[in-house]
Each structure stands twice: as C-alpha cells, then as structure tokens.
Amino acid sequence: MKTIAFNGSPKAEGNTFQALKMVTAELEKEGIETEIIHVGNKVVRGCIACNQCAANQNEQCVLPGDDVNEWIQKMKQADGILLGSPVHYAAIGGTMKSFLDRAFYVTGVNGGMLRHKVGASVVVVRRSGGLPAFNQLNNFLAYAEMLPATSSYWNVIHGTAPGEVTEDDEGRQIMRVLGKNMAWMMKLVEHGKGKVVPPEKETKVFTNFVH
User: Fold this and answer.
1) What is the pLDDT of residue 211?
2) pLDDT tens digits, residue range 158-174?
C-alpha cells in the first residue's frame, strides 16, 4: 500500500513538510510506502471551468505546463492521500487550491477515481485560522466520497519559523495519532476488498436553483 502526501507550502522543508513527516513516519512503521510531493513552490494555474476533462474522459486536465496530470495519476494509484497546507488568511495556500480544484474535478468527472480511498488533511498555522483551512481541505475529501481519517483533535499544528512545529507537543501527538489511524483504516479497506461489497456508485444529480 502507498500514501501520497502533498505539501502545499512554498517552503520545501518548512513546518508543513515537518507535519506531514510526522504522519508519514507512523504510516511507514505499519509497512505503508509514502511519498511527499512539493506543490506549494510550483506555478499552477487555477481551473478555467472549460469542462474538457469531462468531455475527453482521459483523466487529464487540458491546461499545459505543469505537473497536475502527473499528480492525478499518482493519486489514482495510491491507497491513501494526505493533504497538507500552511494557513494563508485563514485559508489554504493559493497554489494548493489551484491544484486541488483541478485534480479533484478531473478525478470526479472521470469515474470518481478517488472514491473510497482513505484521505486526511493537515494544516500548519502560526496562531489562528487553522480550522477554516482544515475544513477547506476536508471539503475536497468529502466531495470525492473518500474515507476521512481522524485524530484525537483537529489536525492543526502550530509553528512559524521552520521546525517550530516540533515544539507543539499536542500538535505532534495529533499528527502521530492521525498516522496510526490512517494506517489502520487503509488496512481495513485493503482487507475488506472481495469480502465486503461497497455501495454502488450513483450518478451525480445536479440541481440548479435558478431556472
């Protein structure tokens, strides 16, 4: 089994990376392979609502010049997906938002590629705004019908200068428990394959409120 983690911070090995490493360390103890992909320092355009990914049904976004399609395929192949972001104005980083908007739309309209994969969100904040950003990440997991892993508190850890998250004792415990719970859920899903029949996927109904 494998978990793909996405670092939405512009800093390669800042506090968001450190938080993700706390979670992936627990996954690796359980024999789960992990990979952290740095998204936050890339140039990623936002979704332009062209809907070509739905029309083409080729699991790709038509916008060129970045690694979004490569990351989509890594998400497809993974058993678990971990999203991490710093907090910018009580929200996730802009590059991370652009990536997630495109990736989750492509995977959604191409057969629900992330459905029933285990997912989790992690945010890093200096002082406040952590919960709005955490909820923002969780919205992607919910929309994709993923199975969210939880911890002993909301998955928020505090720090400003790189490495300060290691001084947040409760935050470190939250990340550690999250990793353990995520590994356990992934094993439940894996061992349930062929034994527990998943619910049939329904075709999404779109209701417009202005006619």
Assistant:
1) 65
2) 999 999 999 999 999 99
Can you list the residues of the chain whose pLDDT is less than 50?
Answer: none
Name which CATH class applies to 2-192: alpha beta
DSSP of the chain: -EEEEEE-SSSTTSHHHHHHHHHHHHHHHTT-EEEEEE-TTS--PPP----HHHHH-SS--S--SSSHHHHHHHHHH-SEEEEEEEEETTEE-HHHHHHHHHHHHHHHHTT-TTTT-EEEEEEEESSS-HHHHHHHHHHHHHHTT-EE---SS-SEEE-SSTTGGGG-HHHHHHHHHHHHHHHHHHHHHHHHTTTSPPPPPPPPP---S--
Q: What is the pLDDT of residue 206?
A: 87
Question: Using alpha carbons only, what angle is made at residue 21 by residues 71 and 180, rounded to the nearest 5 degrees?
Answer: 100
Tokens 């939250």 -> residue: 174
